[in-house]
């Protein structure tokens, strides 16, 4: 019986993914206000970020790959919400999809895997900041049970204008 392969596979991120993950992130740095970073990164500059997301614990990195080519199609992370110790059971989550891989359900697959991985961890709340406007990201977060809690008005300046960030939270 022939085995059927899934079109997309999701797995924890590894150091060998660093170049591709950096390229995806740099697209959003250069082309969008989705991230408020304003200068692109080299893979070596992003290495501490990658290493801060081990395969276990509350701070994860999940990577989606094409099942046939192993091309990285996107990634999702849970990262520290704030550095002070009392925030340890809260995480900030994010999803980045390769520019040519949108509208394929990659973000949904990534978030599904991320929240499944976090289910056994001591994490109480997840937060997501979404630069506005970004209706696709808002829909994705609401699909996963995030609820709108407020907007920081004109909190970031990029491309010569100010951007609002809507904040969402999810109980875990």
UniProtKB/TrEMBL annotation:
Alphabetically sorted, this entry's keywords are: Acyltransferase, Transferase
Superkingdom in the source lineage: Bacteria
Q: What SUPFAM superfamilies does its record include?
A: Acyl-CoA N-acyltransferases (Nat)
> Do the record's keywords include Acyltransferase?
yes
Q: Which residues form the N-acetyltransferase domain?
A: 8-169
What is the protein's given name? Answer: GNAT family N-acetyltransferase
Q: Which organism is it from?
A: Streptomyces bangladeshensis
